[in-house]
Design a protein that fits this description.
Helices cover 40% and strands 14% of the residues. With 134 residues, it is of the alpha+beta class. It has a domain of 88 residues: Double Stranded RNA Binding Domain. A three-stranded antiparallel sheet has the order 1-2-3, covered by helices on one side. It starts with 11 loop residues before the first strand and ends in a 7-residue tail after the last helix.
Length: 134
């Protein structure tokens, strides 16, 4: 992430929850998974980055503009917390990158002529496949 962009800790809401899936007694006892919530509209991010974040078609971003990340890959809460924060930073970094503007280009005269000659050649080949009239 660029040095100018930093997300304050008070804007990120972290909640410890129980992990899903197999894992035996540890899963049933310990709340090792982390549920991260980050409100894009209420954040101190620049307006351009907020706009690009909201425009992303990511299933982790709700219609209200809240990023929800659930980290439960690791057995410890600390590793899951750092994993969730890393995923949030990766998402914001991707949105911080300004996309290149597309410049319309036209095909060259030579490429247009080559295309037309190949089309004529293909048409001629196909016309030769027809029935012969005598």
């Amino acid at each position: 992430m660029p040095a100018s962009i930093a997300i304050p800790r008070d804007e990120i809401q972290l909640t410890a929850i129980r992990s899903q899936g197999a894992g035996g007694q540890n899963v049933n006892k310990v709340s090792s998974a982390i549920h991260l919530r980050f409100d894009i509209h209420a954040s101190s991010l620049p307006a351009a980055i907020k706009q690009r974040l909201l425009a992303l078609s990511d299933h982790r971003i709700t219609e209200d503009g809240v990023i929800i990340i659930k980290a439960q890959q690791h057995r410890t809460q600390e590793k899951n917390r750092s994993d969730a924060l890393a995923r949030l930073h990766e998402l914001v970094t991707r949105a911080a990158k300004v996309p290149k503007t597309r410049r319309a280009t036209r095909p060259t005269r030579g490429s247009r002529e080559r295309r037309l000659t190949s089309k004529k050649q293909r048409g001629q080949t196909k016309s030769l496949r027809g029935k012969i009239n005598t």
